[in-house]
Specification:
single chain; mainly alpha; globular; transmembrane; transmembrane helix
Protein backbone atom coordinates (compact mmCIF):
# COMPACT_ATOMS: atom_id res chain seq x y z
CA UNK A 1 0.00 0.00 0.00
CA UNK A 2 2.98 2.28 0.54
CA UNK A 3 3.74 2.20 -3.19
CA UNK A 4 0.12 3.14 -3.98
CA UNK A 5 0.28 6.11 -1.63
CA UNK A 6 3.57 7.30 -3.13
CA UNK A 7 2.09 6.97 -6.64
CA UNK A 8 -1.01 8.97 -5.69
CA UNK A 9 0.94 11.63 -3.79
CA UNK A 10 3.22 12.14 -6.79
CA UNK A 11 0.15 12.46 -9.00
CA UNK A 12 -1.42 14.99 -6.66
CA UNK A 13 1.84 16.92 -6.43
CA UNK A 14 1.62 17.79 -10.12
CA UNK A 15 -1.85 19.28 -9.83
CA UNK A 16 -1.95 20.61 -6.26
CA UNK A 17 0.66 23.37 -6.49
CA UNK A 18 -2.06 25.91 -7.25
CA UNK A 19 -3.88 24.90 -4.06
CA UNK A 20 -0.63 25.20 -2.08
CA UNK A 21 0.08 28.67 -3.46
CA UNK A 22 -3.49 29.71 -2.66
CA UNK A 23 -3.10 28.43 0.88
CA UNK A 24 0.14 30.39 1.39
CA UNK A 25 -1.50 33.56 0.05
CA UNK A 26 -4.44 33.11 2.43
CA UNK A 27 -2.07 32.77 5.39
CA UNK A 28 -0.17 35.96 4.53
CA UNK A 29 -3.34 37.95 3.76
CA UNK A 30 -4.80 37.02 7.14
CA UNK A 31 -1.58 37.86 8.98
CA UNK A 32 -1.66 41.45 7.71
CA UNK A 33 -5.41 41.99 7.51
CA UNK A 34 -7.81 43.18 10.19
CA UNK A 35 -10.56 40.94 8.87
CA UNK A 36 -9.92 37.20 9.10
CA UNK A 37 -10.83 35.11 6.05
CA UNK A 38 -9.06 31.95 7.19
CA UNK A 39 -12.10 30.17 8.61
CA UNK A 40 -14.00 30.63 5.35
CA UNK A 41 -11.20 29.73 2.94
CA UNK A 42 -9.57 26.69 4.53
CA UNK A 43 -12.68 24.45 4.32
CA UNK A 44 -12.78 25.28 0.61
CA UNK A 45 -9.14 24.21 0.28
CA UNK A 46 -9.94 20.99 2.12
CA UNK A 47 -12.79 20.32 -0.29
CA UNK A 48 -10.42 20.91 -3.21
CA UNK A 49 -8.03 18.34 -1.73
CA UNK A 50 -10.94 15.90 -1.56
CA UNK A 51 -11.46 16.45 -5.29
CA UNK A 52 -7.73 15.89 -5.86
CA UNK A 53 -8.00 12.53 -4.09
CA UNK A 54 -10.81 11.54 -6.43
CA UNK A 55 -8.70 12.67 -9.38
CA UNK A 56 -6.20 9.91 -8.58
CA UNK A 57 -8.98 7.38 -9.21
CA UNK A 58 -9.58 9.01 -12.59
CA UNK A 59 -5.93 8.56 -13.53
CA UNK A 60 -5.97 4.95 -12.32
CA UNK A 61 -8.84 4.01 -14.62
CA UNK A 62 -7.77 6.24 -17.53
CA UNK A 63 -7.29 4.40 -20.84
CA UNK A 64 -8.33 1.08 -19.28
CA UNK A 65 -5.60 1.38 -16.67
CA UNK A 66 -7.06 -0.90 -13.99
CA UNK A 67 -6.02 -4.20 -15.65
CA UNK A 68 -2.42 -3.03 -15.79
CA UNK A 69 -2.52 -1.52 -12.30
CA UNK A 70 -3.76 -4.71 -10.67
CA UNK A 71 -0.97 -6.81 -12.12
CA UNK A 72 1.15 -5.22 -9.39
CA UNK A 73 1.53 -7.03 -6.03
CA UNK A 74 -1.32 -5.50 -4.01
CA UNK A 75 -4.91 -6.49 -3.39
CA UNK A 76 -8.08 -4.61 -4.24
CA UNK A 77 -8.71 -4.14 -0.54
CA UNK A 78 -5.33 -2.45 -0.17
CA UNK A 79 -6.17 -0.24 -3.15
CA UNK A 80 -9.41 0.89 -1.49
CA UNK A 81 -7.72 1.51 1.86
CA UNK A 82 -5.00 3.56 0.16
CA UNK A 83 -7.60 6.03 -1.14
CA UNK A 84 -9.00 6.65 2.34
CA UNK A 85 -5.53 6.98 3.86
CA UNK A 86 -4.61 9.37 1.05
CA UNK A 87 -7.67 11.51 1.74
CA UNK A 88 -6.49 12.01 5.33
CA UNK A 89 -2.80 12.49 4.53
CA UNK A 90 -3.56 15.10 1.88
CA UNK A 91 -5.10 17.53 4.38
CA UNK A 92 -2.67 17.02 7.28
CA UNK A 93 -0.48 20.00 6.25
CA UNK A 94 -3.57 22.23 6.07
CA UNK A 95 -4.79 21.04 9.48
CA UNK A 96 -1.37 21.56 11.11
CA UNK A 97 -0.93 25.08 9.69
CA UNK A 98 -4.53 25.94 10.56
CA UNK A 99 -4.03 24.69 14.12
CA UNK A 100 -0.83 26.73 14.59
CA UNK A 101 -2.48 29.79 13.05
CA UNK A 102 -5.51 29.40 15.33
CA UNK A 103 -3.33 29.21 18.44
CA UNK A 104 -1.35 32.32 17.41
CA UNK A 105 -4.17 34.52 16.13
CA UNK A 106 -6.92 33.20 18.36
CA UNK A 107 -9.28 31.88 15.68
CA UNK A 108 -11.97 29.48 16.95
CA UNK A 109 -10.17 26.14 17.07
CA UNK A 110 -13.43 24.17 17.09
CA UNK A 111 -13.94 25.12 13.46
CA UNK A 112 -10.96 22.91 12.60
CA UNK A 113 -12.63 19.89 14.16
CA UNK A 114 -15.96 20.57 12.46
CA UNK A 115 -14.28 21.04 9.07
CA UNK A 116 -12.31 17.81 9.56
CA UNK A 117 -15.49 15.85 10.32
CA UNK A 118 -17.21 17.33 7.26
CA UNK A 119 -14.18 16.49 5.12
CA UNK A 120 -14.11 12.87 6.31
CA UNK A 121 -17.86 12.60 5.70
CA UNK A 122 -17.58 14.06 2.17
CA UNK A 123 -14.62 11.83 1.25
CA UNK A 124 -16.40 8.75 2.60
CA UNK A 125 -19.46 9.67 0.56
CA UNK A 126 -17.68 10.43 -2.72
CA UNK A 127 -15.08 7.63 -2.93
CA UNK A 128 -17.53 4.68 -3.27
CA UNK A 129 -19.61 6.67 -5.78
CA UNK A 130 -16.50 7.38 -7.84
CA UNK A 131 -15.37 3.76 -7.71
CA UNK A 132 -18.82 2.45 -8.65
CA UNK A 133 -19.76 4.80 -11.49
CA UNK A 134 -16.29 5.69 -12.76
CA UNK A 135 -14.96 9.18 -13.40
CA UNK A 136 -17.20 9.91 -16.39
CA UNK A 137 -20.58 8.83 -15.03
CA UNK A 138 -19.99 9.98 -11.46
CA UNK A 139 -19.49 13.65 -12.43
CA UNK A 140 -23.21 14.44 -12.49
CA UNK A 141 -23.82 12.59 -9.22
CA UNK A 142 -20.88 14.39 -7.61
CA UNK A 143 -22.12 17.82 -8.70
CA UNK A 144 -25.64 17.14 -7.43
CA UNK A 145 -24.37 15.79 -4.11
CA UNK A 146 -22.01 18.75 -3.72
CA UNK A 147 -24.83 21.23 -4.23
CA UNK A 148 -27.05 19.34 -1.78
CA UNK A 149 -24.35 19.08 0.91
CA UNK A 150 -23.05 22.64 0.57
CA UNK A 151 -26.58 24.03 0.32
CA UNK A 152 -27.72 22.10 3.39
CA UNK A 153 -24.72 23.24 5.44
CA UNK A 154 -25.16 26.87 4.36
CA UNK A 155 -28.88 26.73 5.17
CA UNK A 156 -28.17 25.15 8.56
CA UNK A 157 -25.64 27.85 9.48
CA UNK A 158 -28.01 30.61 8.34
CA UNK A 159 -31.00 29.24 10.24
CA UNK A 160 -29.27 28.11 13.43
CA UNK A 161 -26.05 30.11 13.53
CA UNK A 162 -22.45 29.03 14.05
CA UNK A 163 -22.46 29.69 17.81
CA UNK A 164 -25.52 27.50 18.32
CA UNK A 165 -24.00 24.65 16.31
CA UNK A 166 -20.82 24.84 18.41
CA UNK A 167 -22.90 24.58 21.60
CA UNK A 168 -24.77 21.57 20.22
CA UNK A 169 -21.49 19.85 19.36
CA UNK A 170 -19.87 20.40 22.74
CA UNK A 171 -19.16 17.61 25.19
CA UNK A 172 -20.96 14.32 24.75
CA UNK A 173 -22.55 15.35 21.45
CA UNK A 174 -19.12 15.93 19.89
CA UNK A 175 -18.18 12.35 20.77
CA UNK A 176 -21.43 11.03 19.31
CA UNK A 177 -21.01 12.98 16.06
CA UNK A 178 -17.38 11.84 15.79
CA UNK A 179 -18.36 8.20 16.34
CA UNK A 180 -21.09 8.59 13.73
CA UNK A 181 -18.65 9.97 11.16
CA UNK A 182 -16.10 7.21 11.88
CA UNK A 183 -18.79 4.52 11.53
CA UNK A 184 -19.92 6.11 8.27
CA UNK A 185 -16.33 6.01 7.00
CA UNK A 186 -15.98 2.33 7.96
CA UNK A 187 -19.24 1.53 6.17
CA UNK A 188 -17.97 3.49 3.16
CA UNK A 189 -14.74 1.45 3.13
CA UNK A 190 -16.73 -1.81 3.15
CA UNK A 191 -18.93 -0.57 0.29
CA UNK A 192 -15.92 0.56 -1.74
CA UNK A 193 -14.21 -2.78 -1.13
CA UNK A 194 -17.32 -4.65 -2.30
CA UNK A 195 -17.48 -2.47 -5.42
CA UNK A 196 -13.83 -3.14 -6.31
CA UNK A 197 -14.13 -6.89 -5.67
CA UNK A 198 -17.07 -7.09 -8.09
CA UNK A 199 -15.33 -5.14 -10.86
CA UNK A 200 -14.20 -7.26 -13.79
CA UNK A 201 -11.03 -6.07 -15.53
Amino acid sequence: MKALLIKDLMTMKKYSMGILYGFIIIVFVNLFSEKVYFEQMVPMLMYMMCVQTLTTITYDEYDNGYPLLFTLPFTRTQYVLSKYVLSILSILPIIIVWLIYSLIIGVNIQMIFISLLLYIFASSLYIPIYLYFGSAKSTVAMVLLSFIIIGSIALLFNLVGFATIIKLLQGFKVIMVSIGVVLFMLMSILISRAVMLKKDF
